[in-house]
Amino acid sequence: MTRSIHLVTEIPGPQSKILVARRHAATPAGLAHSTGVAVSHAHGALVTDVDGNTLIDMAGGIGMLNVGHTPEAVVEAIRDQAGKLIHSCALVTTYEPYVELCEKLNAAAPGHFTKKTLLSNSGSEAVENAVNLARYYTGRQGVMCFDGAYHGRSQLALSLTSKYALFKKGFGPFSGEVYRVATPNVYRGPAGLDEEAFIDWTIAEFDNALIARVDPAGVAAVIIEPVQGEAGFVPIPQRFMEHLRKRCDEHGMVLIADEVQAGMGRTGKLFSIEHTGVVPDVIVTAKSLGAGMPIAAVIGRADVMDSAHKGGVGGTFGGNPVACRAAIEALNQIQSPEFQQRAHEVGERMRLRLESWREKFPLVGDVRGVGPMRLVEFVRDRDTKTPAPDETLEIIQRAVAAGLILIRAGLYSNCIRLLPPIVITDEQLEEALDVLEAAIAAQ
């Protein structure tokens, strides 16, 4: 097998260390980085650092690079658009890339109803727009969210986000009228309850919250990641999603699916909620929508999207024409049958390999995910499920030194998430998994 990893220095190398030192001097301490790698250039699933080392990217920009680094069609579209129109602002003029992208997203999103799309710059901004529109449409203020959720770092989005110590500590006060309820994380359910009983329990907890914490007549929206990202790639069971849809229909609450990390083909379908058959009222997407360019979208029922007064939504950079062209080309690739088949193949290879680790290594407590969105959770004891964050960090450091780019996840920071570009080759994927397996075995 031809190896893709090529190391000419230690990782991080001397030039990477110099650039990272400059970064520390010039940027806030809170801007963390999971590796010491300083990137020079990249293509597909391979990254070359400033020392000339070639590494395999298994983090994918935290899910931004489903179509890979510098895909040719996207790069050419960016070049072409930059020579025509870089910016004019959708609040001032109309330009075709904005309209075309919205048309494509309206057609692609699930649901047999008329849809409209609003473009913005980031997942956080899109989440805030989605909640604002739900509040305007319903005339209500309350928003229900879930343990483990990650919805962004702006004020309202951060208020909806979980994992307090990492994301929220010191940043309060947070927005009011936010009601957090239990997530059906079946791996970490209460002792003595099997999977189905635990799902029943979380359904009952959700219904109890509509009595004990907030009246449904005061709830504008229920927002949920169909596969939670930062919490540790927790797939929400179909039965739980169906129950949310039922309650939202009963009480006039808007169901918002946050597809920022799990969407755009990452789970083998365009949107991860499609695995459940549940149709949300509004979808939020970003990350891989732009193939690395900053763009996000809120796609929703036309009556919800049209509810705000003229001038009530939008922003200076939202739907920038260069980012729109990149997104159009990325979406064309993601929607192709060849890409969807490749996502299935990559997901199956990852699933089979990770499941073998659960048999080999007592430190591996669980492996899970959907399609090529996969994760390994490390525990010190399988019976107590005591998290192993220090061991997880050591494994990552060992794997990075051997040529992988990786990042952690999970409420306890005891998981390694795998989000390789879906265009990764079989040989590159196997090589990457070999390196990670060796790093686990050495622990």
Automatic annotation (TrEMBL):
The gene is davT_2. The keyword Transferase applies. Its EC number is 2.6.1.48. The keyword Ligase does not apply. Belongs to the class-III pyridoxal-phosphate-dependent aminotransferase family. Its cofactor is pyridoxal 5'-phosphate. It comes from Botrimarina mediterranea. Keywords: Aminotransferase, Pyridoxal phosphate, Transferase. GO terms for molecular function: 5-aminovalerate transaminase activity; identical protein binding; pyridoxal phosphate binding. It holds the Pfam family Aminotran_3. This is 5-aminovalerate aminotransferase DavT. It is an enzyme of class 2 (transferase).
